[in-house]
Structure formats: structure tokens, C-alpha cells
Amino acid sequence: DTAVSQTPKYLVTQMGNDKSIKCEQNLGHDTMYWYKQDSKKFLKIMFSYNNKELIINETVPNRFSPKSPDKAHLNLHINSLELGDSAVYFCASSLAESEQYFGPGTRLTVT
Amino acid sequence: GDSVTQMEGPVTLSEEAFLTINCTYTATGYPSLFWYVQYPGEGLQLLLKATKADDKGSNKGFEATYRKETTSFHLEKGSVQVSDSAVYFCALSLYNFNKFYFGSGTKLNVKP
Q1: Residues on chain B touching A42 (C-beta within 8 angstroms)
Q2: How close A76 comes to chain B (CA, Å)?
Q3: Is A42 on the interface with B (CB under 8 A)?
Q4: Is the preceding omega at residue B10 within 30 degrees of 0, hence cis?
Q5: How high is the pLDDT of residue A98?
Q6: B10 and B105 in contact (C-beta within 8 Å)?
Q7: If pLDDT is split at 50, 70 and 90, which confidence band does B98 have?
């Protein structure tokens, strides 16, 4: 009965590789988000989708590309990974103006 | 611009001590306010919320009151436990503007 799930939980890869993180929510929410959390726990919103439409696209490198095949899924694809991309990436979802529900996070380590 | 400012940590307390974590905000419009908690190795969980001025959110012994006059939403707990050790985030939502802002997080360490 997981509400917001992400895969994988850990991802270790080398610089220059391309990787994807998947997110799924079974809450019936209409909005989904990607956040990046750095080593100091600072949370930065990257993208937000509402009903499969991109509504927030903060200043992130265009190597990051979100894709929402349907309302329940929001994936994040990262091209040409760099050392600075190492972080924990969180997916979240919400309904209208209510609170956000977060996934468990994906710890990405780029070596 | 819209933002959330919360006190820097870490905050270290002994068990059963009183906790206050300060949070102030700047927002256009009428935001909803939230406190989230992040336990080690986990995602963020909603702790409590308030959607309009003077509302008090409460959960698990934690409380916060939405103060429009001081633009604040301070988190309090009368008696902390070791299990409360976590990082706490204050946040605001301005849905009509598709905006959701988090504070920088405050780490709480509770010692037995």
C-alpha cells in the first residue's frame, strides 16, 4: 500500500553516463514533483507536473528531463551525469493545494 | 519574493526539554503553512499544517500557530523524546501560483 514509490533507492554510476529514476503514486493525486536534496539537507524543487503538464521548471541544467506518461507516474532522466549531480532525489505528489506526500528518495552517487 | 526562513541548527536538547523551532515566511497572497519531518534515511513526512490565519496545527505533541501579523509558524513541543531526533522543515504553499517553498531545515538532536 505504498503511497509514493521510487526506484531505484540507490544509484551509483560514473560521470558521463545517462540514468533514469522512476516514480509512481497510487494516491490519485493530480500533481507530481521532483526535488533535489543536497548534503546539507537543502531541498530544491526541480520540476512539477499537473495532469501530465509541466507547470514548474526551475533553473536546472537541460541534462535533466522529466517525463510524465500518465498522472500516476513521473520519471526523471539525467544525461551526461556530473559529480555535482550527486544528491538525494525525492519525488512527491499532491492534490490541489493540499500537502505533498514524498517518496523514500533515490540516493545518486556519481563517481 | 516568496520564501521561508527557519532557524539554523543543529538544535541539541535533553529528553523532556521544551522545543521551539522558529519559522517565518514572506508570501504574496494567502499561503498554507506546513511542517515536515525527515527521519534519517527517509523521505519527508507531513507533521502538521495550517491553512489560514490563527489556525493551529497539531500532531504527535507538536503544535504550530499560523500568525499572519508576525508572518510566523513556529514549531513547539512541550517535552521532546529521543525519537524526535530528525530534520524539521517549514514550508509554504501558494497553489494558485503553483508555488511550494521549503525552509532550509533544522536538525534536532535529543539526548537521553
Answers
A1: 104-105
A2: 17
A3: yes
A4: yes
A5: 77
A6: no
A7: low
CB A25 within 8 A of CB A6: no
State the first-to-last Cα distance of chain A, in angstroms, to the nearest integer: 34
Confidence of residue A57 (pLDDT cuts 50, 70, 90): confident
**Chain A residues close to B107, C-beta within 8 Å:** 41
Backbone phi, psi, residue A50, to 5°: -120, 120
Task: Give the range with max mean pLDDT: A50-54, A60-64, B17-21.
Answer: B17-21
**Total CB pairs under 8 A between chain A and B:** 46
Q: Say what the pLDDT of residue A50 is.
A: 84
Distance CA A76, CA A91 (A): 9
Chain A residues with CB under 8 Å of B93 CB are 97, 99
